[in-house]
Amino acid sequence: MEHKKTVLSKFFDIINGLENVVLAIMVIGMIVTILLQIIGRITGHPFAWTEETSRYLFLWMMFVALASGFNRAESSRVTLLLAAGPKWLKKFSEVLYAVIVVAFFGFMIIYGIEVVKQQIMMKEMGTALQIPMYVIGVCVPVSGVLGIIGVVESFLEYHGNVAIPDKEKEKEN
After folding, report:
1. How far apart are CA 3 and CA 156, in angstroms?
2. Is the dihedral of CA 137, 139, 141, 142 positive or negative?
3. Do the beta carbons of residue 157 and residue 4 sit within 8 Å?
4. Which residues contact 17 (CB under 8 A, 6 or more apart)?
5. Considering only CA atoms, which of 94, 78, 106 is closest in space to residue 156?
6. What is the pLDDT of residues 125-138, one digit of tens each?
7. Residue (of 22, 58, 10, 12) closest to 142 by Cα position
8. H/E run at residue 94
9. Which of 12, 82, 110, 153 falls between 20 and 30 A from 125, CA-CA?
């Protein structure tokens, strides 16, 4: 994986580090919560809060992980048809990739903020934990922002992962 350092490299490193910390906390939290849930069921005294907690941790983990997959263009995408297509399609596909992914994350930001506003306005609370639901809902717009930052990082620092390889150049190597 070819990595090109840019002016924003330190910023990207900080964001990537924050994502990793959040993901580690969520995974550790899920493991502890699920173990407590199992122990509670075995002993006949289940904790009411463990199911809800594991669900909320999972939501945060999945949304942050979704965004994190775009940092180095490592998320799954279809390249088979593009690799077999004409050269102009390969060049256009990079732009198409950027537009579609940024539009998707933009959608997450806009509508995620709307959901959070609604959760605040309705004063929604978690059933067992009694925490405000916007604490959970905010993971959607946060993921959108992190995803757009990740797309910018992938284009600036890992462009080789974004670019569709040319079959003729591969044959020469």
Report:
1. 9
2. positive
3. yes
4. none
5. 94
6. 999 889 999 999 99
7. 22
8. helix 87-121
9. 110
Rg (CA), the chain: 20
Tokens of 5: 């350092």
The two structure tokens encoding residue 77: 């995408």
Structure tokens at 63: 């949304």
* Those residues with Cβ within 8 angstroms of residue 87's Cβ, 6 or more apart along the chain or in another chain: 166
Report pLDDT digits (tens) over 18-77.
Answer: 999 999 999 999 999 999 999 999 999 999 899 999 999 999 999 999 999 888 776 655
List C-alpha distances in Å: 164 to 70, 73, 102, 158, 161. Answer: 16, 12, 18, 12, 8
In angstroms, the CA 6 to CA 8 distance is: 5
Those residues whose C-beta lies under 8 Å from the C-beta of residue 120, and which sit 6 or more positions away, are: 132, 134
Would the pTM count as exceeding 0.90?
A: no
Residue 56: name the closest of 142, 114, 110, 134 by CA. Answer: 134
pLDDT at 10 > cutoff 70: yes
Residue 51 burial (CB < 10 Å; 0-12/13-18/19+)? middle
